[in-house]
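tool=predict chain=A
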Amino acid sequence: MILRTSQRPLAQGKISLPVIGLITALMLGFLPWWLSLSPFVLSMLMQTVTYSIAVLGMVVVLGYTGQINLGQAAFFGLGAYSVALGTTVHGMGFWPALALGVLIAAIAGAVLGMTTLRLGGHYLAMITISFQQIFDLVAVNWIELTHGPDGIAGIGRPQLGNLVLTDDRAYLSLCFAMLIVLLIFVAWLPGTRWGRAMCSVRENELAADVVGVPTMRTKVGSFTLCAMLGAIGGGLYAAGFAYISPDNFNFSRAVEFLSMVLLGGAQSPIGGVIGTTLLILLPEWLKEMPKSLQFIKDIYLVIYGLAVILIMIFMPQGIWGLLRSRFRPTVIAPPAAAALSLGGESLGDDALLQLSGLSKHFGGLRAVDGLDMVVRRGTIHALIGPNGSGKTTTLNVASGLYRPTAGSIHIAGVDITSAAPHQRAAQGMGRTFQNIRLFPQLSVLENVIIGAQRAGNPTDRGEIALRARALAALDFVGLRDKFADQASLLPYGHQRLVEIARTLAGHPRLLLLDEPAAGLNQTEKSEMMQLLRRLRDQYGLTILLIDHDMRLVEGVSDVITVLNFGKKIAEGPPNEVLHDSAVIAAYLGDADALA
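tool=predict ok
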């Protein structure tokens, strides 16, 4: 579970581990001023700090957004070469050269993200490896620009007013200060709209898109931020050591960055710093063992590699994840939430959702074949049929997960046939799934807040208002007391209700429910029936419902449409449709099924 004081207040008088970690980092930042350290120790600390900044970028892209990046050393190198060439060849100051490097890395990250992030998984890993290899080849072979294997020496350091930070201790303190600022920024991100969007993409990209998160924009943004942090670290590294060469930024360095973030804890910026520190200092510590343990010096790389592997196997959440699980803050129950306001559509004959000639073909299979259907405002419209009749495919096309082969889709007269799922959510379309799609590692409250922050929500979208809206939605489904629980640990029936609450928090005017009673016991089905009736009768919400439970369908529906082999075979009031001979033959099997 991601714990944040902005969403889960701590008991008074207690300090969270992240705060302790930041205070400790702040104290360490000024140690170089207080202690007389050897040049070797200063260089190790310089490497640790600058690498940590690059690893913070890995926390953003891998830990928060769940996207693989094996090209971070290339972005690290872009920042380093920009500072190196800017200060030695082009007569630029350190800060303009660093800013240029960050800009170049941001552009490269955005372009790489826009062209590759649609692939994801191992394809994304392969492309980032290729990008890293291309950077290596350019750094080595474009001698006129990069000076090739000889590298670049005499790199300038920054100036603060009239003070040039030529002293290693002074410069290291500046790097520590920048690390602390960036660490606080990355730690703050998950409590923002953008940060929650990142986490939702990591947890379930399909669900994130449907509840209104612009997933592609979110992934590209996180990849760009990752590249910028890498460039900042690289620029500071170049000035710190005053010399760089291509082997400082090769593929093995990218693997090190990945190992550092996984070792410390990918979802925590403090974990990233811990992992970086360990992987830099541990080999040196092993090499400096006393004479009685001389044999360790000969096999220190084996011990080092084995230790890293064991930690990753037995602590998959990283070192910080283990520490955080042992020091969970006390959670204060939220105040009573105001009643949920939905403001659904009033009853009328006009259509809220209209499907015209809708078809979806998968090769030679016509899953939906020329469907015409109108869902009128303020009604519950059921879509039923035997397995494989095209019901879920219809919902997937209506919500934008599939592009239709033919036909059109309108909501309140607006053509959304070509709109992306998050754009349909902005038009007031909410969706749940037959197989529950929550954000499992997030809390119940975080799940619902992500639904509330969708674009186009007519309620106030400030942080306090979003939290209040989410709590009201949880109160509506009876789960406010579960707000701090991890979503994946809830009973199945409660997970169904969280998914509905997440959709309601987005203030939908049209709710698409795909088998909401699936897997529920009879008591839970009765409660679901009452909930659906409340949504229609009290709030005028329009619902398109798929379910195989005919008692539920008959008990709540105003209109039923029946599909068979992708075609509509009947439509009308429940008492007529469910006793139609064609429907009984195609779906119910016999009339006693309703008894």
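DSSP finds 25 helices and 14 strands in the chain. Residues 584 and 590 are 6 Å apart (CA to CA).
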